[in-house]
Automatic annotation (TrEMBL):
It comes from Terrabacter terrigena. The lineage of its organism: Bacteria, Bacillati, Actinomycetota, Actinomycetes, Micrococcales. It comes from the Bacteria. This is Uncharacterized protein.
Length: 130
């Protein structure tokens, strides 16, 4: 049990310094929706640490952002990565692209099909894809 009091703003700053990219990705309405959906899913992850969460229908998977960025945690399995549907268009298509989108203390990983990537890249510049 963690009884330490941690300033929530500090956690947000921590997340921002670990993943400063793609803050504008939520300007795409469908990406924004996928992010909000991911954040609305229940999780038993700690709320006093910056997190990486998967978007996506089936998944409520969560990792500590620090561990993922510094390679101390396994990311998702190939099965999870290529799991249809696409998080953005919800089409029954294997996603091939991954976009990390900051949302406060959490970064949401959105998996997208090739068509969605083309559409998002046409709308927004300077996105960092994985
Ligand atoms: Zn798509």
């Amino acid at each position: 049990m963690d009884r330490e009091t941690i300033d929530p703003l500090e956690i947000i700053e921590q997340a921002e310094s670990l993943w400063p990219h793609n803050t504008h990705a939520v300007e795409d309405p469908a990406v924004s929706e996928a992010v909000q959906y991911a954040l609305s899913k229940p999780t038993d992850a700690p709320n006093n640490v910056a997190l990486l969460r998967r978007a996506g229908k089936h998944s409520s998977r969560v990792r500590r952002l620090f561990d993922v960025v510094f390679g101390k945690a396994m990311l998702w399995s190939d099965f999870d990565f290529f799991e249809a549907p696409c998080d953005r268009c919800l089409g029954d298509i294997q996603p091939q692209h991954s976009l990390w989108v900051p949302a406060g203390a959490t970064v949401v990983e959105v998996h997208m099909c090739a068509d969605c990537r083309v559409q998002v890249d046409a709308l927004l510049t300077d996105l960092v894809w994985d």
